[in-house]
Amino acid sequence: MAVAIVALIVVGSVSVVFGSTWSQERVASEPEPAAAGSEAAFVEDYLRRAVGEDYLETSDRAEIARFLRRELGLQSELLELSGLVPTRVEICLLEGRRGAMVVYRLDGERVTHYLVPKRAEDRPPRVAREHGALAVVTWASSTIEEALVGQVSPDTLLQLARDGVSE
Q1: Does pTM top 0.90 for this prediction?
Q2: What percentage of the chain carries pLDDT values higher than 90?
Q3: How far is C-alpha 67 from the chain's CA centre?
Q4: 121-128 contacts: CB < 8 A, separation 24 or more?
């Protein structure tokens, strides 16, 4: 399967890959980064690009679950809610951490569920912020940080998160 370019949607920050002309100008005008900083840049690029399969277009919940297990070792259940239809799963990179985003459709609107393996304290779902029509709800368990992002009401996302949280 051909490797596609992964669009990273990051709450609060967006990583953008610029053309080579801009990169050359940047390299010429900026001082060289410290060795540790350059190593981190190589690791981030590797994690973003060197994956066997970085996305999967499907509404098959079993296939999406296999993708999450294979690519990230996640045993997480998909959200099982009336009207919520999965359409895609893909690898994402958030603040240097490799995770996944499952894209759903709910009443014609896109709702994205981020799953990022990370040691965290349990946190119940809460509305994190609104950006115009875009709402964000976050929560965490001891092993995974999660978020729902979409152009639906914050109350709808909050209810989806509460109903979909695994025990």
Answers
A1: no
A2: 41
A3: 14
A4: 124/162, 124/165, 125/158, 125/161, 125/162, 125/165, 126/158, 127/154, 127/157, 127/158, 128/11
